[in-house]
Write the structure tokens for this entry.
Amino acid sequence: MANTSYQSAAIVDIYTVKRIFYNGHTSLLVTILLVISSQLIGFGMAGAVRKYLVWPASMIWPANLINCALFQSLHHEETQSKGFLTPRLKFFLIAAACQAVYYWAPGYFFPVLGTFSIICAFKKDDIRLAQITGNSGLGLGAWQIDWNSIVSFLGSPIIVPAWAICNIFAGFVIILWIITPLLYYTNTMNAQNYPIVTQNLYFTNATQVSIGPFMTGDAKLNETVYREFGPILMTPFLAFSFGIQFAALTAVIVHTILEDGHRIKRQFQESIGNFRDIHCKLMSVYPETPNWCYALLFIVATIMGCVACHLGNVMPWYYVLVALCVPAVFLIPTGILQAVTNQTVGLDVITEFIGGLMMPGDPIGTMTFKSFAYMAQSQSLLLISDLKLGHYMKIPPNAMFVTQIMSTLIGGMVNLFTAIYLIETVPEICTGNKQWSCPYTFNTYTNSVLWGVVGTK
């Protein structure tokens, strides 16, 4: 019930990128302070909006309904059961065991079965067929039996409303199976010089970017050397993906105002008085966590982040305050979206864009700015979701608040020291080791080059 603890700390990704790709180093003390600050800073913001995203009955948070049903089934007393293993618990254990056994087939013994393209297998030498149907291409006609991959985006098909799933699928088809092939096969932006779908960046001669020659020892851009290599280019697919993310941010605000404006107004009005739904009545027997607890946590985490940025020379300390302004604007609109559809819009691109404007040629500073803004929103929504789960299950708010803080601190430290251990012990991790390809870390590296090194020029 502490979902805030399993979220990977974005600061750890930046630490990994700096160590592996930029050959830099940040002191352990500064890194620990950055992890703790970025993971907890959003909790204070969550406390400020819980009246509008937790207490109203219209804020459903669909994922929590599944958890509530599971907890109710496992803990419900059955009069016909004898002993510890109730029929419902037996069914759960059998289903869990079957799922674990099932994962071993595509996950360990036959990884090729995780995703395979039947159409592509009929004509292996056809490059265009491989681009359209292959696993590393558009995947049209490919089959997927790895459940972790199937639910990697939606989380679970039984949580997301059917209308939202249809909307997502329609967008997927239009963007990936229609627009992307049109851009590629019309050679827009010299698209055919690169793979049809890739996160990599390239020079004008179609060679993959290696940033080492034009970076200084402190991971800053050497503009004189950079001009000798020429501009860095991205594929049309990647460019269109960034455009969609910018559009999604403005769309969620406009949609929230037009579609849910009256609900927001009503929720603000309700927040002044008493909530009358059954859950609020039952929860009223527990004392609510005081606002000053959230405020104190926010202030302490912010000061900790500013001190760490200054001591570690990561970025100017006052940019932490600027970064927090971004989630302050988007928190309620994205919170309402997630509370109704179980989908949210991240602040990755917009914060990277702003960070690149303020710190051109500084990839680590840009990514640190993004991490504070992104994690503030992400951790806020996770805490709000957990508070809603506690609201449904009638768990005292003070217990939920303390549990979230402790679990997040433990999870963040485990995340950090696991990353340090892997970097020190796994050879060529995230670079030449195919078993440790680190897609999320490599994505952070790509964005650091695009928005930090090159910037918005």
